[in-house]
Amino acid sequence: MNNHQTLYQSLHRKLMSVKDFQSLIQQAEKRLNARSIATREAIEMAQKPLIKLFIPNAQMTWLLSELDPEEPEIAFGLCDLGVGFPELGSVSIRDLVMLRGPLGLSVEKERSFEPMHTLVEYARIARSHRQIVA
Questions:
Q1: What average pLDDT does range 28-33 have in this prediction?
Q2: Which three-class secondary structure state does DSSP give residue 108?
Q3: How far apart (Å, rounded) are the C-alpha atoms in residues 60 and 130?
Q4: Given 22, 25, 33, 101, which residue has the most CB atoms within 10 angstroms?
Q5: pLDDT digit string (tens) for 112-129?
Q6: Alpha carbon separation from 16 to 10, 11, 55, 98 (Å, rounded)
Q7: SS3 at position 4
Q8: CA–CA separation, 13 vs 105, rounded Å?
């Protein structure tokens, strides 16, 4: 083997080890990000709602647990629009303020609300009853 071939093989091995190392780093980052996202989602789902909002005579209810830190106009929680399909999701605070029920009544806060379950537990119960039960 001449010096050119030896140098080429040496550089090729080094480049391959750098590529392998970069690939390992990327794989590790993906796993860490996935774990971080999964942990963050698990924490969010384990939270109890902080507030219960409703529209009198409209069967519309929201159990909200947090505001989006990047968009404070967006809240997350269990939302029930009174059509039998309550779901976890986001809602615009601005939309809630403007919303009116069939009698023209606006959203109210239930003052006596004391959360007994996590959002996930409320969601499971709500799906089986086809409405939020809180």
A1: 59
A2: strand
A3: 12
A4: 101
A5: 999 999 999 999 999 999
A6: 10, 8, 63, 60
A7: helix
A8: 73
Is the Cα dihedral 42, 134, 129, 98 positive or negative? negative
Tens-place pLDDT, residues 38-91? 666 666 657 889 999 999 989 999 999 888 888 888 999 999 999 999 999 999
Query: Would you say how long the chain is, in residues?
Result: 134
Q: Which of 115, 67, 74, 78 is nearest to 95 (CA)?
A: 74
DSSP state of 106: B
**What are the tokens at 93?**
């605070």
Measured CA to CA, the distance from residue 97 to residue 109 in angstroms comes to 11
Average pLDDT rounded to a whole number, residues 90-112: 91
